[in-house]
Amino acid sequence: MGKSVLLVEDDRAISQVIMAALEAEGCAVDHCTSIARRNVLIGTKRYAAILTDVMLEDGDGIATLDVVLERHPETPVIVLSAQNTLDTAVRASEAGAYEYFPKPFDLDELIRAVLQAIARSGDTGGNLDADPADSGLPLVGRSAPMQTVYRMITRVLRNDLSVLILGESGTGKELVAEAIHQLGHRKQGPFVAVNMAAIPAELIESELFGHEKGAFTGAVAQSIGKFEQAHGGTLFLDEIGDMPMQAQTRLLRTLQTGRITRVGGHREIELDVRFLAATNKPFGPLIEAGLFREDLYYRINVVPIELPPLRERLSDIPALVEHFLALAVHEGLPRRSFNENAIAAMQRRNWRGNVRELRNLVFRAVIMSRDDQITAEALGSIFTEPALGGEPRREESDFIQAVTRFLLTERPEHGTVYDRALAAFEIPLLQSIMRQCDGNQVKAAAMLGINRNTLRKKLVEHGLASV
Asked: Which CATH class is domain 3-121?
């Protein structure tokens, strides 16, 4: 089905060339030459994408872009300009433009950007409510951090460079991988996703590279691995930081040669696979602790794409909420909305679970609410921790990171982890509690839930009696 595009351009020759190219790609193009006519058209029709020149016969296309985005904030706008200056590019970006093309532009690159913008918006135009195709975490948002992500995605669609997607859990790393595949030149091939953290270490090599019959106990038949399944398409390894060292060595060789050997086999199999990986762990501590090969890291990190946590793109929450409300209706739940106070309350939250946590909250609120409009007060009974409007629970986050660093750097021997972890963290814990209680051992013991004599003994033992 054709996609509806609005072209606002007063240069006749340029207009004809762009319209012909877009129509050849199956787009239905409306054309106008003025801001006034543009405003009439967007008032009666919703477009999948809008292309606009800057200097038009009745005004500045960038200066009036807010009119477009106020009516259709979900519609990507591509700015064209003969004023090839940094100032114009910055103005377009600050005004909310999806992309900026200086004239003269490469026509193929422009058309590709338009099609990618349409695919990203997930909107084919028209006047019907959106009918989401799936319930995954969306790549939704017009914030500056997300615009950077979108631009990075467009840079890797026409090549097979290895991409490393970085981000906290719940930020949508697999969605980025899917977008690279679905919008790229391998979209006709398979997309195979593997979560390294979900596979037992002893089975990872077999899962990825396959095995021959009799290769190990239980290998009663030949098995085709994920690499072979992804031939001609894309293989995405999520949580690659959890991959054991032996499998890393085999993976490095595969990426270098483009060939695999099944476990228990001897014949090399040549493959054509686009490789993507993701992790929510910092590689520095893993490499320093000898848990991840440095050469493999540089091999997979050709193009890094870092997904921002939700707390760094709070302005995207209204759009994300609207998307999830539409998904809820698609799932058969009642149609609801959030008032301004509720949205503001959500924008004050830390969102340690990121977009996934927001999605779950919206669905839970829709189910639990008896009113069509959900208020901040109603959300207060749904939120668990941290409280609405409260400060981010940084102490807990820092503590978890400290424990992780301890396990990676100290690498305690098997059977000693619990005792060594307690010994490593008991002193700072006691110091912190005693400071909070102003040195009052009675209060500190009550807070810790231990006997005062036990607390006194531990303070003396660690030389903290004067804390």
From this structure: alpha beta
Domain at 412-461, CATH homologous superfamily: Homeodomain-like (1.10.10.60)
The amino acid sitting at 12 is R
Q: What is the pTM of this model?
A: 0.58
Which residues 6+ apart lie within 8 Å of 97 measured at CB?
A: 62, 65, 77, 78, 79
How confident is the model over 120-170, as pLDDT tens digits? 665 444 433 333 333 345 578 878 788 788 878 888 888 999 999 999 999
For tokens 């028209």, the residue is 126
Looking up tokens 């668990």 gives 384
Within 258-311, residue ranges assigned H as helices are: 283-288, 294-300
Q: Which CATH superfamily is domain 144-306 in?
A: P-loop containing nucleotide triphosphate hydrolases (3.40.50.300)
Q: Give 263's DSSP letter.
A: B
The more confident residue out of 34 and 398 is 34
CA distance 310 to 351: 6
Class at the top of the CATH hierarchy for domain 310-380: mainly alpha
- Distance, in Å, from the CA atom of 246 to the CA atom of 236, rounded to the nearest integer, reads 19
